[in-house]
Amino acid sequence: MGTVPAIQDSIYNFVSPTLVDSNASGINYSVFIITAHTQNPELYYISDPDSGYSVDNIPPETPYDLAGEDIGGDVLLTWQIQLSYPDFSYFAVYRDTTSGFTPGDVNRIGTSEVSTYTDSSLAVGTYYYVVSAFDVNG
């Protein structure tokens, strides 16, 4: 995993990768053992096993360049995003008649796994949209 230089301190820290992130479905523990070596190759110390876990607390990037195009009464929405997240899940699309609205369940109109969405069956009027990206952990 890694090495931390000895500096005669009482506490040492090391950030280690884990095999899987913990999420709403449960905590996924990884077990760690620490070995301390001395200048004498025959004298070393091994800790008891202990465990830790990581949490996926890095949200996907916010979609940008949201644009809408009138396609025969429907609105074709397109947007851009850097999909460099291995745990990306979907986009949520929100619509309201008020500019600057807060997206939520009440104005969520659908989801998409690609960077387009067609909003159909609209009444004549002005609509505002927001798109959010979600990963497998929400």
Automatic annotation (TrEMBL):
Protein name in the entry: Fibronectin type-III domain-containing protein
InterPro entries: FN3_sf, Ig-like_fold
Phylogenetic classification of the source organism: unclassified sequences, metagenomes, ecological metagenomes
